[in-house]
Structures are given as structure tokens and as C-alpha cells.
Design brief:
about 10% strand, alpha+beta, 4 strands
Length: about 240
């Protein structure tokens, strides 16, 4: 296993950061490296908002679930799916752009996730740590107003970035056989593998919390399917020009 694969398999979410800032030009280097991510038809449908204003950081923390590391990390970035540039580029060719297609939403969201993961890998290769903040979708309208996001742009997630002040264990991943299928979607062995994985995750949570958390992977999925999860997102996306036609 080479050093790149070792790095990828060592990813941990970091929620405690030192006060050490990034060196001048480091963030720009990381973003430039992240731009090497694959992009559907080279649309590069993303923008990254670097937030440094203390008042805005405080507001973002409150709007994103009061996650304190938003203010503590050396950098806080908001990754946005962005079809504004692309719409304007198409219009310059003399056509009337058709907007609001579901594929445009998918492409811009996927592009945003790919560039963010590239940035994560680049950052970790430099000894930095990150944690994604999906909580920016708790209040996307207010955050869009705060960041002055125009139509055809929406905040997908945030990212805290800085030098780690903790060394957590790597969280176990699903068994390879449950995600790598041969020729067809064959899930006949998945129940047994998931049961084993649940036991592994329960041991992980027990060790991480000193016995204060008894849970497993299956139980952690329940909140995603036991109620309405951010039901405001559909209306918000439509209001931003992503009509999902």
C-alpha cells in the first residue's frame, strides 16, 4: 500500500484545533490542488466562500447547530454548488439557458463534493485536519443571505480546517464486501456482514466515549429515516433556481 492509500485510509474528522494559522498562501495552494478534481463536462460548478469575519463566523456557528469548532478552526469554508457562472457562459453564446433541471442540481452538487474531498486530501497531506459541517443546510436561506449568494447557487456544506489538537481513532468503515459487488447487486451476505460491523462499531463507540455511548451503525441510521430530514431544502432549492424539473 503506497503513501496515498495510507493517507486516505487514515482520515478522521477533527473537532479540536490548535491556534496555529495556515501559512501565507497555503489555503490558495490547497484550493488550487482541489480544482484538479474531476468535473462533469468540465463545468466546475462550485464556489468556495472563505469566512474570516468574526461576526459572520459567530452567526454561521449559530445557524449551523452551534458547533464551536466553526469559530475555533484556522479556516472555515462554505462549499457552494454554483451554476451562476455556467448559466451566464451559456447565455454569452447567444442561447436562452434552460435552468431548473434536476441534472443541473445533481452535477453541481457532485462537483462540489468532489472538489471538497480533493481539498481534504490535500490538507491532510500537509498535516492539517478537517471536519465537514452539514449543518449549514439547517438554515440555508439565512446563510445564503449572510454570504450574499445569488440565484443558481446554494450552500452544500461547510468545512473547518486547521492543525489538529486531538488524535482520534479512525472510525471503522463498512465491510468491503458490502460495497464492492461483482457484476450484479448481490446483497445476500450483507445482513451477516452488517451485523458483524454493528458489533465492531459498538466497540468503537464504547472505546471512544469511555463506555458512555452504546450504539452501532444501524442505530445511527435511524434518525435519517424516522422523520422528516431538513424538509425545507426542496422549497429553498427551488427558490434558488434549482426547480428539479
Amino acid at each position: 500500500m503506497n503513501s496515498v492509500m495510507t493517507l486516505l485510509k487514515s482520515h478522521r474528522s477533527i473537532r479540536k484545533f490548535t491556534e496555529k494559522p495556515l501559512a501565507d498562501g497555503m489555503l490558495e495552494q490547497l484550493v488550487s490542488a482541489a480544482q484538479g478534481a474531476s468535473s462533469s463536462n468540465h463545468v466546475q460548478a462550485y464556489s468556495i466562500i472563505r469566512v474570516t469575519d468574526p461576526e459572520n463566523l459567530a452567526k454561521l456557528m449559530a445557524l449551523s447547530g452551534d458547533q464551536a469548532y466553526i469559530q475555533q478552526a484556522a479556516e472555515f469554508l462554505v462549499f457552494c454548488a454554483d451554476m451562476k457562472r455556467n448559466t451566464e457562459a451559456a447565455a454569452r453564446t447567444g442561447i436562452e439557458p434552460t435552468m431548473g433541471m434536476t441534472e443541473q442540481l445533481l452535477v453541481s452538487t457532485i462537483d462540489t463534493a468532489l472538489v471538497a474531498q480533493n481539498l481534504t486530501i490535500a490538507a491532510e497531506s500537509e498535516g492539517l485536519g478537517v471536519v465537514y459541517i452539514g449543518g449549514v443546510r439547517n438554515n440555508p436561506e439565512a446563510i445564503s443571505e449572510l454570504l450574499r449568494l445569488p440565484e443558481h447557487v446554494y450552500p452544500v456544506f461547510g468545512m473547518c480546517l486547521g492543525y489538529p489538537d486531538q488524535d482520534p481513532d479512525v472510525k471503522p468503515r463498512l465491510p468491503l464486501a458490502t460495497v464492492l459487488k461483482q457484476d450484479y447487486y448481490d446483497a445476500q451476505h450483507d445482513p451477516v456482514l452488517i451485523e458483524q460491523y454493528d458489533s465492531e462499531m459498538e466497540r468503537y463507540y464504547q472505546a471512544r466515549t469511555g463506555g458512555n455511548k452504546s450504539s452501532n451503525w444501524s442505530q445511527s441510521m435511524a434518525p435519517m429515516f424516522s422523520g422528516k430530514l431538513r424538509p425545507h431544502m426542496r422549497d429553498f432549492l427551488i427558490s434558488q433556481g434549482f426547480a428539479m424539473k
